[in-house]
Amino acid sequence: MKDVKKRFFNGFTLIEVVVVLVILGILSAIAIPMTMGGESELQARSDSISNYIVYAQSRSMHSDGQWGIRFEGNSFWMFNNGDIDSKVILPGEEEEEVGLQNISTVSATLSFDDWGVPYDNAQGNADARLDSEKQIVLNMDGDQKTISIAPNTGFVSCQ
Question: Which phi and psi angles does 108 have, rounded to 5°?
Fold first, then answer.
């Protein structure tokens, strides 16, 4: 009688393959956000600021008062009635003044009249009406995003 043949299998078992895939999934879930870091945070913050600017424009168009956004250092807030000290809590925020943490910007004031036309000051004086595109630049760790507000229409874009 012949001896039992020795079997040699080349390859991996299904369990070994699954374990390796799980480990790779965990590592990629940790590594990918670390490499994106500040750029994605800056993009998210610039998008939310753009939305707040549109919100201030909408409030101006649907009320009797002048609404706007004031940027100062690393914070911003919404105001009404042409008074930058008349701070209003923005939707989704807990405080009147919103901190930008690691993001910096120059001081700027932007307000809208009841037609949604943008102005370069809080009161909306005729001489402060935007005659060219207004840009608000956000900086974070060498990365930069620019929020642009078009004259006349107040169209907001983020680049």
Answer: -155, 150
Instruction: Find where tokens 């009147």 sit.
Output: 96
117: Cβ–Cβ under 8 A, 6 or more apart, which residues? 129, 130, 152, 153, 154
Q: How confident is the model at residue 37 (pLDDT cuts 50, 70, 90)?
A: low
User: Hey, where are the domains in the chain?
Assistant: 38-158
- Give the residue from 70, 66, 65, 58 showing the smallest Cα distance to 97: 70
Rounded (10°) CA dihedral 34, 105, 115, 82: 130
Homologous superfamily in CATH for domain 38-158: minor pseudopilin epsh domain (3.55.40.10)
Q: Which of 8-17, 28-37, 82-91, 127-136 has the lowest mean pLDDT?
A: 28-37
> 134: which 2 tokens?
């207004």
Q: What's the pLDDT at 33?
A: 63
Give the predicted TM-score (pTM) of the model.
0.74
